[in-house]
Amino acid sequence: MQPKYKRVLLKLSGESLAGNEGHGIDFDTVLRICRPIKTCSLMGVQIAIVVGGGNFWRGRSSGQMDRTRADHMGMLATAINALGVADALEQLGVQVRVQTAISMQEVAEPYIRNRAVRHLEKGRVVVFACGTGNPFFSTDTAASLRAAEIEADIILKATMVDGVYDSDPKVNPNAKKFDTLSFMDVLNKDLKVMDSTAASMCRDNHIPICVFSLDDPENIERVICGQSIGTIVKEDTTV
């Protein structure tokens, strides 16, 4: 297979790193996810990754806690996950750098856009942690922002379902799956692809999104090589 894209941003949820445990990091699961990332990197694809933190902490379920402090705790959770992904990639022989949006220089590089692009150009995988570095912004928004900054060709949003549906397929067995959607469809129908801030940023910066299932990590390679998997969200579905 030949890659369709030169530079991609892969969005991994924290839950995807937890395996069957549902919380924490299952390192065997992380290794399975990282193997197709290595394969694509060896093909010459430049890969950046944004990780969530839901396997350790979900700010929206923090009860009466101050939202800003809860979001800062979530940023720290993403840093843990980023280091786990980096370790797995390194064990597979992949050169990788972790960059964080809040300063923790003893642990990882600070996020510097030009440095991140240079790493990508040298064939290194770059893992972005700590979201945007600001409370009230999701890691989906961070993925959209970083994709725009590094001029990624596409965002690959790896999820627990095989695409975007008109309703929850776990609740409604007759839920309809979309092969393609426009950003206006996502926003107007309030489809749970990304939050509205992230979707608007992708639309304004002409960055398509592919939503696909990570149940089979090899789907990462299939999507990068242009196979029709999941749901593509783009500006105009007529082209």
Please state the CA-atom Rg, rounded to the nearest Å.
Answer: 17 Å
Q: Compute the number of helices.
A: 7
Structural class: alpha/beta
Strand segment tally: 11
The strands making up the biggest β-sheet line up spatially as 4-3-5-2-1-6-10-11-9
- On the 0 to 100 scale, the average pLDDT is 93
Which residues sit in consecutive blocks of at least 5 with pLDDT less than 50?
none
Under the CATH scheme, which class? Answer: Alpha Beta
Q: Mind telling me which CATH architecture this is?
A: 3-Layer(aba) Sandwich
How would you describe what is shown here?
By secondary structure, the protein is α/β, with parallel strands linked by helices. It has one domain (7-234): 3-Layer(aba) Sandwich (Carbamate kinase), CATH 3.40.1160.10. The chain has helices spanning 27-42, 67-91, 113-121, 139-150, 183-188, 196-204, 219-224, and strands at residues 7-12, 46-51, 96-100, 109-110, 125-129, 154-159, 164-165, 177-178, 180-182, 209-213, 231-234. Strand 1 (7-12), helix 1 and strand 2 form a beta-alpha-beta unit. Helix 1 packs across helix 2 and helix 4 runs parallel beside helix 6 (196-204). The longest helix has 25 residues, at 67-91. It is globular, with a radius of gyration of 17 Å.
Quick take:
With 239 residues, the protein is an alpha/beta fold. The protein is built from seven helices and eleven strands.
